[in-house]
Amino acid sequence: MSAVQNDSRKRNKKRYGAGYHSKRYKGSRELEVGMQGILITCNMNERKCTAEAYNLLSEYADELFGPEKLQDSSEEEEGDEEDVEDALKKEVAQLKKTGVKQERRFQAMDSGANNVIFIKTQNLDSDKLVHHILSDLHTTKKKKSRVILRMLPVTGTCKAFQEDMVKYLTTFLEPWFKAPNCGTYQIAFKARNSSHNKRDEIIKSIAGLVGKLNPKNKVDLTNPELTIIVEVIKNVCCLSVVKDYALYRKYNVQEVVKEDIPKPDVTTPKIDTSTAEQKEKSEAEEAKQEEKTAEEETDKKVPQDKKEEVDKGDGEGE
């Protein structure tokens, strides 16, 4: 029995050890430099997050860019009358000729961080798509996801080293910040599984670069026109420039659906109390003035009454 147990233990080690794990996920696609897409954060459930992401992105992509067109769709319509074997042979021959698999509009990739997935996009603008989704959710206030938290577009990627980032951003930021273009901005930096980058140094270097592109560009941390998103995951830096970052609650799908609480309501009670106090003071002053006038009138009336009594007394004596 001991030999059998040892064999079973060896099998378990091979199956669940590091070597088996690396072989199992060796063919999986990961986030790499040069990709474009959407970073999506979730709450402890990446499978449901990918499913919700596919449904949500496909729904709005069809509205904004039209339905996805596949190369094999026209050929399938023409080959309805052909046999199945002939159709399969043609497909295999075409794949051998091209040697490349057809890429879909959305492809899920391993981001390299927990609770974060990367959806690679093909033949569409991810920043326009995400802004369209958030604007619709903000107006309709309809909740369409349970697990997805934030959706951040990625329109550019580079190596996650300060020199490489500054070199890449010099040309990447030109459409928004190079003269004659200018605007207010803020920098949203986040690093995951990366310790070689210091937040303050990277933000200062990016701000200096934006200032060189146009001195009229100014930092605004309350309500900026543009937000430079810098997301570092391991050795890959994901970049994008977005609008309405504060309005859409930092591109949070769950928060943007909630009703907006107006800020003036907090200050209105103070204004009301001050006006009420002013009214009370004015009323008190008016009451004092009335009392004074009443006293003056009584003081005036008293001597007149005494005079009348004196006049009556003089008449009775005579």
SSE pattern: HHEHHHEEHEEHHEHEEEH
Number of strands: 9
Largest sheet strand order: 5-9-8-6-7
Radius of gyration: 37 Å
Which regions contain 5 or more consecutive residues with pLDDT less than 50? Answer: 15-27, 73-79
The share of residues in helices is 40-55%
End-to-end CA span? 151 Å
What is the averaged pLDDT score? 81
Strand count, sense and closure of the main sheet? 5 strands, mixed
User: How would the global form be characterised?
Assistant: extended
Helix count from the secondary structure assignment: 10
Broad structural category = alpha+beta
Beta-strand content: 15-25%
Oligomer: single chain
Q: What features would you describe in this structure?
A:
There is one protein chain. Helix 3 crosses helix 6 (126-140) and helix 7 (162-172) runs parallel beside helix 9 (199-213). A hairpin with a 5-residue loop joins strand 2 and strand 3. 51% of the residues lie in helices and 17% in strands. By secondary structure, it is α+β, with helices and mostly antiparallel strands. Residues 15-27 and 73-79 have low confidence and may be disordered. The chain has helices at residues 2-16, 18-24, 46-65, 72-78, 84-98, 126-140, 162-172, 174-177, 199-213, 264-317; strands spanning 37-42, 106-110, 116-121, 148-154, 156-159, 184-192, 218-219, 226-233, 236-243. The N and C termini lie far apart (151 Å). A five-stranded mixed β-sheet has the order 5-9-8-6-7, with helices on one face. The chain is extended, with a radius of gyration of 37 Å. The protein has ten helices and nine strands.
